[in-house]
Amino acid sequence: MTTVESAPATPVILGGTRGGPDKPTLRKDRWWVSPVVTVSVLTTFVVYATWAAFSNRNYYVGADMHRNLISPFYSPCLTESCVPGSHPATVITWWTISPALLILIFPLGFRFTCYYYRRAYYRSFWWAPPACAVADAHVRYTGESRFPLIVQNVHRYFFYFGLIFNVILTIDAVRAFQQPGLGLGVTVGTIVLCLNAGLLWLYSLSCHACRHLCGGGMRTFSEHPIRYRFWKFVTPLNARHMQFAWMSLIVVGLTDLYVRLVASGTITDFKLF
Amino acid sequence: MADITMRVWRGDPGGGGFEDYELQSQEGEVVLDVIHRIQATDAPDLACRWNCKAGKCGSCSAEVNGKPRLMCMTRMDQLPEGPVTVAPMRAFPIIRDLVTDVSFNFEMAKKVPAFDPAPPPEGGYRMQQIDIERGQEFRKCIECFMCQDVCHVIRDHEENKPNYAGPRFFIRFAELEMHPLDTNDRRELAKELGLGMCNITKCCTEVCPEHIKITDNAIIPMKERVVDAQYDPVAWLGRKILRRHKLTAEEAADRG
Question: pTM of the predicted model, to two decimals?
Answer without folding.
Answer: 0.91
